[in-house]
## 1
Amino acid sequence: MTDRYAVIGNPIAHSRSPAIHARFAEATGQDVVYERLLAPVDGFAQVALRFRDEGGRGLNVTLPFKLDAFALAGLRSARAEAAGAVNLLAFDGDRIYGENTDGAGLVRDIEVRLALPLAGRSVLLLAAGGAARGAGRALLDAGASRVAIANRSAGRARELAAGVGDARVVGGGFDEIDAMLGQGGAVDLLVNATSTGLGGEALPVPAARFAEARLAYDMVYAARPTAFMAQAIAAGCPQISDGLGMLVEQAAESFLVWRGVRPDTEPVYRALRAELAAEAAR
Ligand code: NDP
């Protein structure tokens, strides 16, 4: 019997997850269908539970519902607990399991596709929203020596750092970056987890931080460099990436949780990259 999965969000029409999972299913021979579900902003639980009651096996959860999904899950993984957010639900009878695959997707993209081992690296994480929450713990678990979180609202970054509860993590405003890194403290990797996106203005990060880093990573994906990527290029950062690989890797991690099989991500990543380029050329 074909098992049903979906991605739920608002808006959702733009989501590439159905195309990614269809490719994974074909490549692994798994009998699954994967749909899009639009839920009203105040109606996440009703739509998610209806999907479950109609036989749905699991959901990926995107903006703005990751906290609602956290609340709905009766059982949560350690990664979901650490992130305080859930981007995957698995249904098994009455049991609702919540997981967070965003951080693992980011780490795998950086370490495997971009070939930058994270052990001993100093990371400057820009933002303190949902995506940054998942990233912080995963970066530490991968061995980062320091994670400095800088956010427009400094208090949120401080709260996030305190919540992680690890001496390697500090939080503050953009104007506190130098202080957070300490005297002579250099950055190996910058990760942009703000929602400023394509049209966003440059972030108030000193050009020297981009210049000294090995990699500048934007979680947003696009055919053209984002404002953050343009900032990194202008400052001479040697390696720059958008978040398309993270998107594919978090999807593969979801597929693994649901189906027990890890799909090969490289062909899917390449196909999506070509699609993005073709869309931009139109
Ligand atoms: P949230 O709304 O939870 O957080 C947004 C963050 O961006 C906050 O820290 C906010 O700061 C900051 N921010 C917003 N506007 C500005 C601005 N003008 N200047 C500086 N900082 C700003 O969003 P998410 O964390 O869920 O998502 C963030 C991004 O990551 C999105 O673009 C999303 O698409 C992407 N993402 C990509 C994934 C992938 O697989 N590639 C997976 C998950 C997310 P403040 O606290 O001050 O408001």
## 2
Amino acid sequence: MKRAVNRVAAIHDLSGFGRASLSVIIPILSTMGIQVCPVPTAVLSTHTSGYKNYCFVDLTDYMESYIGHWKELNIEFDSIYSGFLGSARQADIVSSFIDDFSGNKPLIVVDPVLGDNGRLYSTMDEKMVQKMRTLIAKADLITPNYTEAAFLLGEDYKDSINEEEIKNWLLKLSEVGPKIVIITSVPNGGLHKKTSVMAYNREDGRFWKVSCIYIPAHYPGVGDTFTAVLAGSLLQGDSLPIAMDRGVQFITAAIRSSYGLSYPQREGVLLEKVLSLLKMPVFISSYEIL
Ligand code: PXL
């Protein structure tokens, strides 16, 4: 019998302060009517973007018995969605999780969290980049940001990139395995600064683009927010371009509701003010086909 609500295994860290990873993924997917079952990869006092001296507890050694219990229970998921990993070994654990829980063909989403603005996050290193390259091969859909895409491909990070080059990046990442590749925060350059989310779907050979005005702000956790809305939207039955539109529209609304207020950006967008927008469908869509 079909489950009454979709169920997602969410393999991410729990950061206590700063609105990233599970702290944003759980409320977003719950609001979208989806059951979230977290597999915590690490527990941190804060996320690592803009905070120093954070407390970091790596949960690698607990994950296998945690997951072992779920195997005994024969739990099925409609999606397996991984993000920030606490150690390179966790990539193998996530890979086995995908093998063990793929009997009913869940949507496998890997957000290869590694860095932003041209740099790796402080807990990441070249070994993690290599492991992420292996893990993305197992995914149906991946959502690196522009920095992460550059690291995964071994390309130089540049302040702007043209459409043909980014299409080439999308194709190359898809050749590693995932059917759908989405690169976020792609800089457009030009006079009216914009940023885009670009996608390639190997199944139909189509490229998609959703652009929005660039706001000169850096709120950590926005990548997690985008991928959570995108995954939720796909699970609700939306098409890929509509799911991208919903992700971008939600982030734009969240940033706009936060930007005019003065508080430290490292605390993340004021998700609490905009969560209810997720109950609404997309009214005005702005995706382009390339
Ligand atoms: O938003 C990605 C992310 C997830 N988890 C932790 C982070 C970050 C980005 O800074 O530090 C712990």
